[in-house]
Specification:
Number of helices: 8
Largest sheet: 13 strands, mixed
Mean pLDDT: 79
Shape: elongated
Distance between the termini: 66 Å
Radius of gyration: 29 Å
Oligomer: single chain
Strand content: 25-35%
Structural class: alpha+beta
Length: 360
């Protein structure tokens, strides 16, 4: 929607063709993230003109009725007197057009007020809302069923925060780490995963999100259905980034907001939920990151020459020692594994793995 056209609409300066465009927009796109943000901007402009607004919704609508009636009673006073004269030709057609001009701005303001009221109501409700938070330990994969029946698998060292009961127009959850989601379909109440800098909006679908705080990237892989990636800009504006389709894998880089889309050809990005660690021609640096989370160890690559190595493998029940041994068998890698060290009473450091280049 063109902002200038919307401004003309609310100030009653639209042509008949422009009015049709506006009506179509309200019917189809006004309830999208972009549409809501645009209407919210106009609402904020109204707030700056009002010294005080009533707290209740009906009172606000009464104020809008009063403002619209004052504005349009003056604007169309002469036109109404002229067209309501007995015997005027095409009376019904002309009166219908005037009625549309008078009523539609009120409809637009009502949409804005509904959105504003709903947002404020949701904020107030969330203060008293009870939340659950599930943590997956560093050496296990956890599964949780949400209040709406949706299922979530949490990878090692991940957590999910969600309300005890979903209320309002959206089903919001917050992910730290990595999660695989099977979302129960509900087109009227979108399911939104907040994962660091982005949000994943779905209605009924399966997808995987990797959003570890220490990583510079957030990865989303779509298995079934459709999801929309969004981000929140300054001023709490929600902006749509991309619509994903099955077999899409999108990487969002936090530092420069760069987005890369790839096609999924295998299950390497979400096989972890079935207890499998899968690599397909992945560089050692990425392999080391995943192994460190999987086994809760610190891995150091001592020789830069090792960064040129890539690995293709699937690990299911192997322990850390077995994985390291297999890696050394297929590539020029030597390794050492240190024991945990006690840092303070009852607190131990992680085991440390150091990888060395093995000269022939």
């Amino acid at each position: 929607m063109n902002r200038e056209l919307l401004s003309k609409y609310f100030s009653n300066r639209c042509t008949e063709e422009e009015l049709r465009t506006i009506i179509d927009w309200f019917a189809s796109d006004a309830d999208t993230a972009e549409g809501r943000n645009l209407l919210h901007d106009f609402w904020e402009e109204i707030l700056t003109d009002e010294k005080e607004l009533p707290a209740d919704y009906d009172g606000i609508l009464d104020r809008i009725h009063h403002k619209v009636n004052l504005t349009h009673s003056e604007t169309h006073k002469d036109a109404l007197l002229r067209f309501l004269t007995p015997g005027a030709g095409n009376f019904l057609r002309i009166f219908s057009r005037i009625a549309a001009v008078l009523i539609l701005p009120l409809l637009g303001f009502s949409v804005m007020m509904s959105i504003k009221y709903s947002n404020e109501h949701n904020v107030i409700s969330s203060v008293n809302q009870a939340y659950n938070e599930v943590f997956s330990s560093v050496d296990a994969i956890s599964k949780v069923t949400l209040p709406d029946g949706s299922k979530v698998w949490l990878n090692h060292g991940s957590s999910l925060k969600y309300p005890a009961v979903f209320r309002g127009r959206t089903r919001n959850v917050e992910l730290h780490g990595e999660g695989y989601f099977e979302v129960v379909s509900n087109s009227r109440v979108p399911f939104i995963v907040s994962a660091g800098d982005i949000q994943v909006r779905a209605t009924g679908t399966e997808f995987n999100v990797m959003a570890y705080p220490e990583e510079d990237k957030i990865e989303t892989s779509l298995i079934k259905g459709v999801v929309v990636l969004e981000c929140t800009k300054p001023g709490k504006r929600t902006v749509s980034l991309m619509e994903m389709k099955p077999k899409d894998m999108v990487i969002y880089h936090k530092t420069d907001n760069k987005i890369i889309r790839r096609v999924i050809h295998d299950d390497r990005y979400f096989a972890w939920k079935d207890g499998k660690l899968v690599f397909h021609d992945e560089p050692l640096e990425e392999v080391a990151k995943k192994l460190s989370r999987w086994f809760n160890v610190e891995i150091e690559i001592a020789d830069p020459k090792l960064l040129d190595l890539t690995y293709t493998a699937t690990f299911i029940d192997e322990n850390l020692q077995q994985v390291m041994e297999l890696m050394s068998m297929v590539s020029p890698v030597n390794y050492t594994i240190s024991n945990r060290q006690e840092k303070s009473q009852g607190i131990f450091s992680k085991r440390k793995v150091i990888l060395y280049y093995r000269n022939k």
